[in-house]
């Protein structure tokens, strides 16, 4: 009989978001008339913008003609899309990249998981706590951890608590590590890192021969001028960091699927015998073997995000979501609830009222206010007592949700 990958059995129950959906569906079935407002999973609600849709349609139409049809594309994505991304998303930040360093993919969730393929299992990994669960769970799945302990931490992984004391920016790991996951703007806390804070991480990584896996999926939501959008704005980062980006939240692609990973050619690791080797070459090899690229129409649609028309339209939606974030943050703060994030990110991280546990607050909020959020403890033990609300809803829903919470818990 074939053996299963026993590492999967170390994982706790189900993945966070399906577990939330399960509880919400159960509630909706029992209360079919309830007007449930979903501010849980960070899924966009606004449709694709017209410029993107037009390019998407054109891409599909091209697939219908013999002369413009596209079969397999490059596994790394089309060069023209990589070049547009470099010109429009990186050059304005003062970051110069080659197209060979930009890999187009079907999203940053997949890439931030798949990247583990190119790192030895013996590498020590540091992750935030709370954290986007994918970083934790995928390391457990590949066998980099032991069992979960009583406190909710997996043996063998190094956790970096993010709390009010450190402003949700973790201290350096408590022991030497090889890989460090950083996510800014942060999911779930919605907080950001300054240039100085990121410089400290880059210096630390270089000094300790570590690689930073930098998830910048929410960079488009930054509203403050001096907050870095890319790790490569930081001196030395090309020697020590891989960056993930996504069209999902930026341009409403959660159901379309497109993202990108930057692996600089300067970034080197070491072989078993201590020779230096390029991670860029390894990632290229991995993608060529395990991935067949993103579909042509999707890449056409992604390119249109960066057209003048496309970016104006996309930016309008981002501003709309950030308007929601402000309504949530200001409304709940005025009601006496401690809120963090929501200024440079579409997530508001709040302290549960009356010292409730995250899941107790989830249940109460669902049952009594018919509002869905995400329990902070689902992102890690240090998230206990916190709760995440997403700003991706429709305006009237967001206003109603805030009003219901204020009526129930407002001071
Ligand atoms: C979230 O709600 O944290 C995200 O939507 C999850 C994801 O992007 O995979």
Q: Give the topology string: H per helix, E per strand.
A: HEHHEHEHEEHEEHEEEHHHEEHEEEH
**Total count of strands:** 15
- Tell me about the biggest sheet? 7 strands, mixed
Proportion of strand residues: 5-15%
Low-confidence stretches: none
Bound molecules: D-malate
Rounded to an integer in angstroms, the radius of gyration calculated over CA atoms is 21 Å
**End-to-end distance, in Å?**
61 Å
Number of domain units: 2
Q: Quaternary state, please? A: single chain
Q: What integer is the average pLDDT?
A: 97
**What is the CATH third-level topology name of the largest domain?**
Aspartate Aminotransferase, domain 2
Structural class: alpha/beta
Output the CATH class name of the largest domain: Alpha Beta
CATH homology superfamily of the largest domain: Type I PLP-dependent aspartate aminotransferase-like (Major domain)
User: Count of helices?
Assistant: 12
CATH architecture identity of the largest domain: 3-Layer(aba) Sandwich
Overall geometric form:
globular
Placed side by side, the strands forming the largest sheet appear as: 2-8-7-6-5-3-4
Describe, in plain words, how this protein is organized in 3D.
Helix 5 links the parallel strand 3 and strand 4. It is globular, with a radius of gyration of 21 Å. It has a seven-stranded mixed beta sheet, with helices on both faces. Helices cover 36% and strands 14% of the residues. With 411 residues, the protein is α/β, with parallel strands linked by helices. The chain contains twelve helices and 15 strands. It starts with 15 loop residues before the first helix and ends with a helix. The longest helix is centred in the last third of the chain and has 27 residues. The chain has two domains: 141 residues, Aspartate Aminotransferase, domain 1 (Alpha-Beta Complex); 238 residues, Aspartate Aminotransferase, domain 2 (3-Layer(aba) Sandwich). D-malate binds next to loops.
């Amino acid at each position: 009989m074939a053996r299963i990958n026993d590492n999967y059995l170390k994982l706790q129950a189900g993945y966070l978001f399906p577990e939330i959906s399960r509880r919400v569906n159960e509630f909706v079935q029992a209360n079919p008339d309830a007007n449930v407002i979903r501010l849980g999973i960070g899924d966009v609600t606004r449709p694709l913008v017209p410029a993107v849709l037009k390019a998407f349609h054109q891409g599909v139409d091209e697939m219908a003609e013999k002369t413009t049809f596209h079969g397999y594309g490059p596994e790394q994505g089309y060069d023209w899309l990589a070049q547009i991304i470099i010109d429009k998303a990186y050059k304005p930040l003062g970051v110069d990249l080659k197209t060979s360093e930009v890999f187009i993919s079907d999203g940053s969730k997949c890439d931030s998981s798949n990247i583990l393929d190119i790192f030895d299992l013996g590498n020590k990994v540091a992750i935030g706590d709370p954290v986007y669960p994918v970083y934790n769970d995928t390391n457990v799945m590949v066998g980099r951890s032991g069992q979960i302990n009583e406190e909710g931490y997996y043996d063998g992984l190094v956790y970096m608590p993010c709390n009010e004391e450190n402003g949700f920016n973790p201290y350096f790991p408590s022991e030497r590590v090889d890989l460090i996951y950083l996510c800014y703007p942060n999911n779930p806390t919605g907080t950001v890192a300054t240039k100085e804070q990121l410089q400290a991480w880059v210096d630390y990584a270089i000094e300790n021969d570590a690689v930073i896996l930098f998830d910048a999926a929410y960079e488009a939501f930054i509203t403050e001028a001096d907050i870095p959008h890319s790790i490569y704005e930081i001196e030395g980062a090309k020697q020590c960091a891989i960056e993930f980006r996504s069209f999902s939240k930026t341009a409403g692609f959660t159901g379309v699927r497109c993202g990108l990973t930057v692996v600089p050619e300067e970034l080197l690791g070491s072989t078993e015998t201590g020779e230096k080797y390029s991670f860029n070459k390894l990632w290229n090899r991995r993608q060529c073997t395990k991935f067949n690229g993103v579909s042509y129409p999707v890449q056409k649609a992604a390119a249109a995000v960066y057209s003048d028309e496309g970016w104006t339209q996309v930016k309008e939606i981002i501003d709309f979501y950030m308007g929601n974030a402000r309504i949530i943050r200001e409304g709940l703060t005025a009601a006496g609830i401690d809120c963090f994030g929501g200024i440079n990110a579409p997530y508001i991280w709040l302290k549960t009222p009356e010292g409730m546990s995250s899941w107790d607050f989830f249940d109460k909020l669902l049952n009594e206010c018919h509002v869905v959020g995400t329990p902070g403890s689902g992102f890690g033990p240090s998230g206990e007592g916190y709760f995440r609300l997403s700003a991706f809803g429709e305006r009237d829903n967001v206003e109603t949700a805030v009003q219901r919470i204020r009526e129930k818990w407002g001071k």
